[in-house]
Specification:
about 300 residues, alpha/beta, Rossmann fold, 2 domains, 5-stranded parallel sheet, binds phosphoric acid mono(formamide)ester
Length: about 300
């Protein structure tokens, strides 16, 4: 049997077989979580969050605790020796003397990759700036497979801040490897998809259309993946204020969608999905949160090669 990956920096570090294995293990955990409660006993996860998080941090921490392991780390780097000028390389080397696996989120693109080059244990990217967020993609794949029963033959609309949205970059580059996927990129012209993502889609033989009209796009979609316009990625507050409410998904717009379309969102949401949509059975974003914990349990087991 081939070894699982050492580090997870982008979703493309995982082959399609490895992705399918992970989703399958996560689905086993969803069905019988108690069978896995002692699987990581004695193991330690370090969760290093240099940028705010609710879901990613708590889901990783909870995943490790539910596997019987322990968690160390910080969610405020000013309480660590980073505040005294320690480099990322030295922090990675140091923390890996204590922990069996490191999860890192950082506002700068490339930090997880840098850490992986210096740590003596596996490193998982929990979001690096506007670049990638691979474990959100695993969460999304488990959600799609659980709700729609397939990861193929889908029209996927991604909507909002496509330029800086790392969850969207990861999802689109990863899903473009599955069969018969079409994309609809829905954004204001100021926040269109980066060229490297579009090139990956084309290289993988898939098609995309670009539009700024959500109402026109929605009837064709199997999945509508909404995203927040991210204040923290804008240089100009004025530009953020102008674009932040460009798309708002309402019940009226949902009435244009297929009866079995699902709505996803990595969260946090600001205004882009009206609260009235939460009670629509097609709204899956809070189920998605729970799937995030289960798929991270599966990922920890695979990366630590635990039964
Ligand atoms: N989806 C996601 O990354 O959420 P957090 O920023 O709360 O971790």
């Amino acid at each position: 049997m081939s070894k699982f990956i050492k580090n997870l920096i982008t979703p493309n570090d995982l082959s399609l077989d490895q992705l399918n294995d992970l989703i399958s293990l996560a689905q086993d955990i969803v069905k019988n979580p108690e069978l896995f409660f002692k699987s990581a006993e004695g193991k330690v996860l370090a969760s290093l969050f240099y940028e705010p998080s609710t879901r990613t941090k708590f889901s990783f921490d909870t995943a490790m605790l539910r596997l019987g392991g322990s968690v160390i780390g910080f969610s405020d780097p000013s309480t660590s020796s980073t505040a005294k000028g320690e480099t990322i390389a030295d922090s990675a080397k140091t923390v890996s003397q204590y922990a069996d696996i490191i999860v890192v989120r950082h506002p700068k693109e490339g930090t997880a990759l840098l850490m992986s080059k210096h740590a003596d244990c596996p490193v998982i990217n929990a979001g690096d700036g506007g670049h990638q967020h691979p474990t959100q993609t695993l969460t999304d794949l488990l959600t799609i497979n659980s709700c729609l029963g397939r990861l193929e033959n889908l029209t996927v609309g991604v909507c909002g801040d496509l330029m800086f949205g790392r969850t969207i970059h990861s999802l689109v580059t990863c899903m473009s490897r599955f069969s018969n996927i079409n994309f609809v990129f829905i954004s204001p012209k100021e926040l269109t998809m980066p060229e490297y993502v579009k090139e990956t889609v084309t290289k993988n033989g898939k098609t995309y259309v670009e539009t700024n009209n959500l109402e026109k796009a929605i009837p064709k979609l199997d999945i509508l993946y909404m995203s927040r316009v991210q204040r923290e990625r804008f240089v100009s507050e004025e530009e953020y204020m102008r674009l932040k409410d460009y798309f708002v998904l309402t019940s009226e717009k949902m009435s244009l969608a297929k009866k079995d379309m699902i709505v996803m969102h990595p969260l946090p949401r600001v205004n882009e999905i009206a609260v009235e949509v939460d009670s629509d059975p097609r709204a899956k974003y809070f189920e998605q949160v729970k799937y995030g914990m289960y798929v991270r349990m599966a990922l920890i087991l695979k990366m630590l090669e635990l039964k």
